[in-house]
Specification:
The protein has 117 residues and is mostly beta strands. It contains no helices and ten strands. The model has no long low-confidence stretch (mean pLDDT 95).
Length: 117
């Protein structure tokens, strides 16, 4: 089982990076998929999740701006972050499984996104 996150890096405020979470070893079908982030000195935050029944949730801080989307053909999913603000600076992590809306999974291989103003 392997979960790989890519797409982070340094971006200017207003940039629109897209993070990719690629999963191997198990299928994403029937599982929750989620993005989390942790800013320096802050707790792990759930950014967005698509639950196994298709329900989509976004945190208030990103609602209306970020988009989570699955790619069943690639067994992957994405987080599109248009017009990113400096407060979006954080380590971003992805996860797939069950009950992810109530979990906090800021561990493992994440990707750092640093937004400069």
């Amino acid at each position: 089982v392997q979960i790989l996150v890519s797409g982070g890096g340094s971006v200017q405020a207003g940039g629109s990076p897209r993070l990719t979470c690629t999963v191997s070893g198990f299928t994403l079908d029937g599982r929750d998929i989620a993005w989390y982030r942790q800013a320096p000195g802050s707790e792990c935050e759930l950014v967005s999740v698509i639950e196994s029944d298709g329900t989509i949730y976004y945190s208030d801080s990103v609602k209306g701006r970020f988009t989570i989307s699955p790619d069943n053909a690639k067994n992957a999913f994405y987080l599109q972050m248009p017009s990113l603000k400096p407060e979006g600076t954080a380590a971003y992590f992805c996860s797939a499984g069950v009950g992810l809306k109530i979990g906090r999974s800021c561990w493992g291989q994440g990707t750092q996104v640093t937004v400069s103003s």
